[in-house]
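Lab notebook, bench 4. Still working through the backlog of constructs that have no structural model yet. Next entry is a single chain of 62 residues. Request: give me the structure tokens for it.
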Amino acid sequence: MKQRGIAIDDLHGFVSPKLDKWQKDDQCHYNQLGCKALGEKVARCIEDALPEKAKKEKASSP
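Model written out:
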């Protein structure tokens, strides 16, 4: 993937150390804290991939 310039967001590596705090008892779904953390992580990855112009426009919007 790196050879082709495709970004990878390693969510498994991000979540693994916090499973006891972020995963529901069903060991499949995430609780509210886990969902929030995952959402923020994915948003950061997307923002990092955006061109600078898009980042500036996002920062200046209300």
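Notes after review: The first helix runs from residue 11 to 15. DSSP finds four helices and no strands in the chain. Flag for follow-up if needed.
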